[in-house]
Amino acid sequence: MTFGLAFWHRLVVVVFFTVAGLVLAADVLAPLSVALLLFVLLTAIIDRIGKIDIGGRQVPGWLAHVLGIALVLFGLLGILSILSNQAGDVAAALPRYEERFASIASRVIALVGDTNYAAAQSALSDLNIADFASGLLSSAGTFLSAFFLVLLYIPFMMLERGPMRAKIELASPDEGFSANLRRVLRSISLSLQRYMGIKTSVSLLTGMGSYAIMRPVGLDFAETWAVLAFALNFIPTIGSIMAVALPSLVALVQFETFTPFLIIVAGCGGVQFVVGNILEPSLTGRSLNLSPLMVVLALTFWTAIWGITGAWLSVPITVCALIVMSHIPATQSLAILMSGDGKLLQSTSEDADNQPGKPLHQTGAAPTPAQGE
């Protein structure tokens, strides 16, 4: 009993200092984590370009690197250009939106009757859209301010990509540990590359589909809301809701009629539903295999730790933790509880790109070879 209490005391202390360290070092760790994800996306693009067959010959490595880096930089700079060009216009339009929203809300509140009107009016007076939107813009500005730090990390990560493999071999105490470490890193790399590749593609489709709905309606700052739809799609569950709610509220206060509001709610909501519930699951398959409850818990925890950046990183960090724990016998049971169906996948071939390996554990049966997706 004494040993058990001592263990739990140590566990609480470790968890406390770990969380405290994550919070205190957020300004360093959050940009570094974003840089790691962009590095994973960049390597996935480079590897994919390098496999393109042109006239019986593959694209040279140096050209694949140039094209991959140019593609990622072009995308990032395009997003920054849209946000920076329209940020001032959005801030200038906030007072007009607030006045229009107050007018609409007052008419709606009047429908509840004289009894509840005073209480509702008091609650409405406490709602300051300008302050709320300014807070969102401030959070976005803080995130964008770390962009240059992220760009500083990525070139050094690219330089370390090759030498790191040799250094892992030299640093490993024995051959078995080295092989297991390579297997873990390989599984993490393949899972994250697949996640980032698929998530970026479907998020791009979400942003383009939302823009195709908002632009013909004449919604103000449609480009900004499309970029936000792209970025928010990386945030589980709540991101899709926010991607529909924000432009819908703008449509509600911008137009005199409810028709544009209904079009954007139905159109953008339909895009989110098709992409999130039909297209993305069919592409992702079992490559992530996270429990829905674990996704929500991870989203809550990392949002509390790192804010919007933590929400964006919650799924990749949890995937990494799941893979690491699935390779450690002492934590495989916990990894099974975190997984979606209790089956943990492990890559068994160094050359099996984007292919899951055999299950590490299969509840109720002995391990069997995995079938292709």
Automatic annotation (TrEMBL):
Bilayer topology term: Multi-pass membrane protein
Where would you find this protein in the cell? Answer: Membrane
Its signal peptide is none
Family to which this protein belongs: Belongs to the autoinducer-2 exporter (AI-2E) (TC 2.A.86) family.
Q: Which Pfam families match?
A: AI-2E_transport (PF01594)
The record's InterPro entries line, in alphabetical order, gives: AI-2E-like
Keyword field contains Lyase? no
This protein's GO cellular component annotations are: membrane
What keywords does the record list, in alphabetical order? Membrane, Transmembrane, Transmembrane helix
Query: Which residue spans traverse the membrane?
Result: 32-50, 62-83, 132-156, 225-246, 258-279, 299-324
Region Disordered: list its residue ranges: 347-373
Q: Some GO term, biological process aspect, for this entry: which one?
A: transmembrane transport
**What protein is this chain from?**
AI-2E family transporter
> Lineage of the native species?
Bacteria, Pseudomonadati, Pseudomonadota, Alphaproteobacteria, Rhodobacterales
